[in-house]
Amino acid sequence: MKAVSWIYRITIIIFCLLSILPMVGLLAFGHGLGDLVYAVFLWFSTLILLFIAYLYRKTHTLGKYISIMAIFLPILIFIVYKATLGRGPEYAWDGNVFFWK
């Protein structure tokens, strides 16, 4: 139970970090202005995940964690893929995840 709870918390932290990075210009999805679509999708996913975590903060059932993780882990994997290997033509994948200025 504790391992699943920690994975859930780590997923929330990664979602929060990934939703901040496009706003400060350190993460791009390679589509220029089209990155807004991914950023907005990521922001709404993060808000929904935080809202669900707020609703279920008192109950600690294994089924709750597993069902939420079954929904949000594929979304997280998709976002990480689009930010790395699946980048668009404007900022093609060059081996770096972040754009340091």
Please describe what this structure looks like.
By secondary structure, the protein is mainly alpha-helical. It has one domain. Helices cover 65% and strands 0% of the residues. It has helices at 2-24, 35-55, 62-83. α1 runs parallel beside α3.
Main features:
101 residues
Report the portion of residues in β strands: under 5%
Strands, count = 0
Helix content: 55-70%
Q: From the helix content, strand content and strand pairing, which structural class follows?
A: mainly alpha
In whole angstroms, how far apart are the ends? 42 Å
As residue ranges, the low-confidence spans are none
> Major sheet, described briefly?
none
Describe the global form: elongated
Question: H/E series, N to C?
Answer: HHH
- Whole-number tally of structural domains: 1
Instruction: Specify Rg, calculated over alpha carbons.
Output: 15 Å
Average pLDDT: 83
Number of helices: 3
Keywords: Membrane, Transmembrane, Transmembrane helix
Give the structure's gist in a few sentences.
The chain has helices at 2-24, 35-55, 62-83. The protein has 101 residues and is mainly alpha-helical.
Set down the secondary structure blueprint:
Elements: H1 2-24, H2 35-55, H3 62-83
